[in-house]
Amino acid sequence: KSKDKDKDKKKHRTPEEKEARRARKAAKAAASADLDGIISDANLDDDANEAGTPGRVTESTDSPGNTGVKSPAAKPKAAWGDVEKGSGSLRGGSKSKTPDGGYVKPGRTEAAAHARTVNVFRQKTGVDVHIKSDVLEPFDEDDILSQIYNECERRGIIVTRVTKRSKHHAVIEDVAFSMADDLEAMGVHVNKVRIDCVPDYGEFDKSQRDAAGPNYEPFPYWATGPKELGELSVGIGLYFQSLLWGQRVMLGMFLLGFFTVMTYVKSGMLDEQVKGGELTGLAIPTLGSVAWAHENEFRLLWFVTNSTWDGDDRSVMMGISFLECLLAVIFIVLVGWLSTEQKQTIENIDVSNISLQDYAVKVDYIPRDADPKEIGTHFARFGKVNQVVIGTDIDGVLGLHRKRAAAERAAETAEVRLAKAEYYAQKKENPSEAVHKGLAKLRERVVKLDDKVSKIMATIDQEMSSGSHGRSTSAFVTYETETAKAKCVGLYKPGNLYAWFFRPKKLRFKGHRMWVHVAPEGSDVIWENLDVIGLNALVRRAFAWLAMIIVLCVTAAAVVYTKSLQNSLPPSISCETPKLDGSLVCDKIWTTTGVTGQASKDVLADLLQFSEQVDATVCLREEYVVRGQWKGNATAYQGAASPAALYDANGAWTGGFDASTLQDECAAMACFDCVCKDKVMDVAMMYVGLASDVDGYKALCGDYVEGKMIEAGGSPFTPAAENV
Questions:
Q1: 3-state secondary structure string, 33-71?
Q2: pTM score, two decimals?
Q3: Is the per-residue pLDDT at 210 higher than 50?
């Protein structure tokens, strides 16, 4: 059909099209015959004033005294948008120039021309023919095509694709101009009902459309289906299907979750929470910040008052949490639906495109010495076999072959550079010492690369002769027809463990049960791993799952550790406010100003013992610290002597300054935070060895500094890990 279509195009070309085609061929031949060179990294220029860059020889840079003599080496094709030196012209027709001959961004005209050359646009050499009728409603595109194909073929009309625009509207695409009139005259029959055909000649009239040549148009973003894009490749069709699906689903979920998102953002941007140090600069607004706002009686929902919801956000927040869970469930269901749709899309694309996968099966667990002819004879009972290819365990050798190919390419490039360098050196009457050194380096590089290739080849020969490679691992059997392949797959039942265990003897090959399944696409095969099947593959998968489980456990442990560390740290407070109003002056309770040496260590040790009796949650619950502000009153402890014994004979805490309250312990925790915040840089210098801990601040604030660093680094990680 494709050949007939090409013949028809040639037959109906106008004289203008033929002339344009000849002109394009001539231009292409002239471009491929063009010679230029970008050869040597060595500095081959004697004179700094000669045209061109040292070591870079171009066609417009002629050697002195040899005007018009060009390099014999062919020039690699320039990249689109590059500017050739000395010409300043862009491929694609742009005449833009820069003073140094650099890159010039192409305009829309050049971009469109380039898109046509690389087949980004959809090219139509014919016209679309529209058919409209209520009869079309129950039929899909393939059904319509199958019903009209034979009818059109009898009239000599080539029909290759039909797309449905709506229930009652379909389009026969890209019909040749000479055939569109015949199709319009005869119409088509669907379900034995005649339907009129209406050609669409676009912006040209009927007489001009044929002479206008091919029509280029971009694929419509919303209207193009995965099946049509699948003609380019299955991956492109699936990619755009997933892209459109993701846009629609994410937009819908964003609209449903907009209220929740705004609530989180509002809670995460509370000034009191940020000033109090409850959130670091890297924190992400989550339910944690919402909980803090609720605990500290911040109203996040502006419509919640004392007359509604009993003045409490909790009922509304419960609704928001339920909505979040519902969105997560909806998303999981939609992902499952997308997976099903993708499988159906692959089948639809597969019907429209012919590939080797449609005719081939992959056979595992074959004998190590299997012969292709014997395997072909065994599988020929299902239909005529076109080809049998044996896969071998060449995992290590294949890597060596890749290295050999890379080394050979490098050697060929070096030889070409050397040849061109020698060519230009011969044109110079008295080559300088730098030129000779450059040539010597190139010759040395060529010799080294040739030796490298020889060593790799010797290694390959040694590996292949050792007998540890080249054993048969699997076979790819290709049939002449899809029916034969389907019959083979139907009897061998891929993926059915029961069928494999109880394989009939007539389906076994030399006593081997074999594992037969549809062959993957050639680009999906990892040839180094052809011998990784069965138990070997299961063991590898088990190790992969074990590694993932370990990662999840480590992640969970890191989250738990980070959260516990955050609870053990003192609550961050604003230190200046209580100092100014006198409710908490740390230096009057635990004097550190002007105190050094052992005396400083003793004071800081007392402060640490007081602060260790409580944690952040206790001080928040007792409301000594609210919204990052100190709300207690520690004036009674200013100037008071420290108890003679902080612990009794049994090691129990005696109560500090006041055994009836935890206010003194929470004051110590708040002072702990203020002192350590002031000494962060000093402690950091001690950690890197640039200062010594003479006064005991590292012993006091070491864990604090480490905790704050982990908290800052884990703040974006912890919520994400918790959500996962």
A1: HCECCCCCCCCCCCCCCCCCCCCCCCCCCCCCCCCCCCC
A2: 0.42
A3: yes
